[in-house]
Specification:
The strands form three sheets. Strands 1, 2, 3, 4, 5, 6, 7, 8, 11, 12, 14 and 17 form a twelve-stranded mixed sheet that branches. Strands 9-19-18-15-16 form a five-stranded mixed sheet, with no helix packed on it. The chain has eight helices and 19 strands. It has two domains: about 70 residues, no CATH class; about 210 residues, Fumarylacetoacetate hydrolase, domain 2 (Alpha-Beta Complex), CATH 3.90.850. With about 290 residues, the chain is α+β, with helices and mostly antiparallel strands. The protein is globular. The N and C termini lie far apart (about 35 Å).
Length: about 290
Amino acid sequence: MKLIRYTHGARTRVGVVDGDHAVDLQGLLPDAPRSLKDVLAGGAALQDRIRAALPNATSRVPLSAVRLEAPVPDAQKYLAIGMNYQDHAEEARQAGITIPKTQLWFNKQVTCIVGPYDDVHHPRASQKVDYEAELGVVIGKRCRHVAEVDAHTVVGGYFVANDVTARDWQFASPTYTLGKSFDTHGPTGPWIVTPDEVPDPHNLEMRLTVNGELRQKQNTSIMIYNIWQQIAHLSTVMTLMPGDLIATGTCAGVGIALGKFLQPGDVVRVEIERIGHIENRIVQEP
């Protein structure tokens, strides 16, 4: 199932994709939650009701006629792991960056979140804007101290992410947060794909292009710490909530390694097998 937020006319709705149409969840189930976070928290029982009702849906709009929005614009947390792919860790090592011996986590402040096809700002304050293709995970239930073997049970779904980074700000501070959190530097989407449609999130091809030029291509199988280990680690520290976002790491080929930073006018496309794609134009910050 693909869960979406979309705008049609002057109204933004929570919905579900059915073929090449968007279906308004309120029209499908009048008692359905109005927030995608609450839809995720409804779990399998709510999703079963949605599936059962879909054949009789009347509130259908072609996807081509709607604007897809960030699926979870109101996440409480957006957490991201650094240097979590073997090839990216190696390119960082060759650049003189110390490879962490444990999971390396940082925040992307939630004000960075934008939609799958929204413009991304090239900040006035940065000269080194970079891209990072990442598989995103959204938490589906409130949880703490989750065992690695049980971590799959708290996943609400998957999305495509670009961990846009201002490298000059990232490395100017002992923490990465500022360099990772400029407004618009968190494009996500195009929807949340529920786990039943992604049998193995650790075997997905991921690609990123800039203006059609392939920059990143890798399989999620070479994560150093897999998704279940990531969730177990994070939930040792904090309560994870429905709608919390996790970016699971990027592969080799980032701009800083290639000496190719993003410029206004560039178009960045990230595609992940079974999930979909996002595409964002880089524009000068107003």
